[in-house]
Amino acid sequence: MYFKILPGYLKVFNWFTNKFKVSVEDNNMALFTIENYYRVQIFTEIFLQTIPMMIVQTTNNNNSKWEITGIISFLIAFLLLIKDGTQIIAFISHRVFDSVESTLRPTLDEQKNKRDKNAYFNLRNYLNEPDDQMVDGDGNTSLHQATRLEEIEVLDTQATIHPHMLFILNQMGMTPLDTAIFEGKNDRADLLLKKSKKFHSMSSIRFITKPHRLELKYEKSFTLAIQKNNNDLLFKFPNKSIRTMYVPISPMKSYEQYKFLKSVNKDIFMTPIHLACRLSNDEAIRVLIEKHQYDMNILLDEKSPIFELISTSTYQDLVILSYAMKTCKPDVNAGSKLPINQAIERGNKLITKVLLEHGNANFYKKD
After folding, report:
1. Which of 160, 216, 307, 334 is buried most, with the most CB atoms less than 10 Å from its CB?
2. What is the pTM of this model?
């Protein structure tokens, strides 16, 4: 029965949601609409199919003197009538029991709904006010501390029992995954990365009021992996999970520390692609382009990633530069420092040739 109404249901339901701007966050409305369509179909069948079929069959049987085939056909139509009538009675009874509070209604569903509601509100309250006893003076949760233990089973248990701690930040702005990568604990980082893949930005963890990073959960971790030259971990991040954005890489606990780092011209923000180009990490550049479609036109201090790559490149980096220029076609005229001038200044003829062939350089622009 469901398959009969499914094509028509989809069209009408989509028109209804678009017409009245209905936001459908779950399948409750969809299931409710399917149930109503099913009821309409039963009423339609009994009045437009079953009863007319019985009338026609009775007329034919009277003319044929009720032969065996006619009797069987009539019985089938009669059974269809009983089936439709039973379903209509069930619909009416269900409607009556739903509209009044009756002791005839089973209490199991009520208890289940009440239990689900209590569990939901308890979970939400817990996430709004996590246990402060599980956080030390530096803002490290028990999951941060578990990354430093020798027993990886303790980390696995903590991540399973307290999954929201996967995304809570300490005072350095680092998640447990960031901490594991920063301290070179590759097996811990691999475990935490697998655990965090199970949660998306709309999960109930978003109710946490403490500083957390559920929406942008991988960008800093990926940048730290590049910084630590952990190329094996770069391939384990989910596809298209590294967005084009700036990442803070210097640990800052206060605004005064930020002003000090700014005064000494120390890098405070970085992008994964700029760091990969600065370190001549060809594998990281290829992963960002192929798996995450990273924008090669993002600027950092008015410098493009291509400029960073040319500033530290050798002839061995010519292959990745040619690949990036052919695949992404970045703008070599962007920023205040031009890659073509940097290549000419370093005397690298092959890189200059690649930029001229694939970069469409503007010779009238000054850096």
Report:
1. 307
2. 0.60
